[in-house]
Amino acid sequence: MRMDVAEIACRLIETESTPSKGEKKIAYTIKELLNELPLEIEVQEYSENRVNLLAYTKPAEKARIILMGHMDTVPAFRSWTTDPFKPVVRKGFIYGLGSADMKGALACMIKAAENSLKKGFSFALGFTAEEETTMTGAETLAQTLKRKLPSLKIAVVGEPTNMRIATCHKGVLRVKIKVKGVRSHSSIPKKGENAIHNGVRVLWNLINNGKPEIKHDLLGEPTFSVTMIRGGLSQNIIPDLMEATIDMRLIPPETMNSRVKIIEDVLDRLRRDGINVHMEVLQYQPPYQAPDTREIELALEAARELGLNPEPVGEPYLTEATIYWHKAGVPTIIMGPGRIEEAHRPDEKVSIENLRKTTAYYETLIEKSCLRLNIRSSTA
């Protein structure tokens, strides 16, 4: 592979993988790059244009580490000052959609794989679809990991951490609150029941009482945020329905059931006062806390050896790490070259120096995971 990590990143940025386009094209772009390496490659197309990619050294049973990342990006915003799909290299940065989140990290993984193969080390790579929307790709791939790579001891997810080692992140619970009333003419409001008025009361109570009073050393406090409200038919009609969407970020040891109970307790008190209110769960992914394993310690040791900050951090955003741990049982860290401040915004960029340092980190961690048991691949 006659490309450095920055060139690989540019190649990936040029391949659009927004939600409307899907990940099939970029999956085959990555496959084309990996075809030059002695790896076993599996394409997992689980629905139209939704594709995961799994690559590993042979025999698969020897792989103890997997580098993982999502191939999709958010849509391109109109306020970009350059073409988001034509990467620009300027003053040590690569500008382009997905450069920080997380095609830069994918490039680091591909380059680290090439370099690690020259040393004969065993490892695996996983690239997923739909992380920015449903995380269905990771859910699908997690089932394959248990069957195909039974010896995995650690996964690395390349989300933007500015090369810090994140060992935990918040979970997410999203619900819809529906408040029902009785429609009437607005000139005779007492003939109806104003769903918006009741809804304001519901939301006020939830905002003040909808989360536990707990704190995590790295993640801080849990959150409760009303993110969408819809209600009303016309300016002269008393509304009979108000709906609100709520985003909650959970911290260990919270679960869906523990937070739902808090919400339902608040709603039950309001129901006793005659308010017709219901809750519907829209999405849930649990918070993630890395277990205390030797492989997690090795990840921190690798950072220290390379002059990176070895102190673990927590991230407020959701990642696929929670799926690989809860669904496949693989301890996971989050470490990537991008900065979260660059993600999901116009003129996204990633530092080329960070790409090179992250590549070195991935290589070092592959080496450490292999040398611990003196594991070598048969493709060396």
Describe the protein's architecture and organization.
This protein is an alpha+beta fold and 380 residues long. It has helices at 5-13, 24-34, 99-118, 136-148, 195-209, 256-272, 294-305, 321-326, 352-371, and strands at residues 40-47, 50-56, 65-70, 88-90, 93-95, 124-128, 154-157, 166-169, 171-180, 184-185, 223-231, 237-238, 241-250, 276-285, 288-289, 313-315, 332-334, 349-351. Helix 1 (5-13) packs across helix 3 (99-118) and helix 7 (294-305) packs across helix 9. The longest helix is centred in the first third of the chain and has 20 residues, at 99-118. The two termini are 16 Å apart.
List keywords for this structure.
18 strands, 4-stranded antiparallel beta sheet, elongated, Alpha-Beta Plaits, 2 domains, Aminopeptidase, 380 residues, alpha+beta, 6-stranded mixed beta sheet
Please list the strands of the largest sheet in the order they lie side by side: 1-2-6-3-7-17
Uncertain spans: none
Summarize the biggest pleated sheet.
Answer: 6 strands, mixed
Estimate the mean pLDDT confidence.
Answer: 96
CATH H-level name of the largest domain... which superfamily? Zn peptidases
How many helices in DSSP terms?
Answer: 9
Radius of gyration: 24 Å
**Strand share of the residues?**
15-25%
The domain count comes to 2
Q: In whole angstroms, how far apart are the ends?
A: 16 Å
CATH architectural designation of the largest domain: 3-Layer(aba) Sandwich
Which CATH class of the largest domain? Alpha Beta
| Shape descriptor | elongated
CATH topology of the largest domain: Aminopeptidase
One letter per element, helices H and strands E, the order comes to: HHEEEEEHEHEEEEHEEEHEEHEHEEH
Helix content: 25-40%
Structural class: alpha+beta
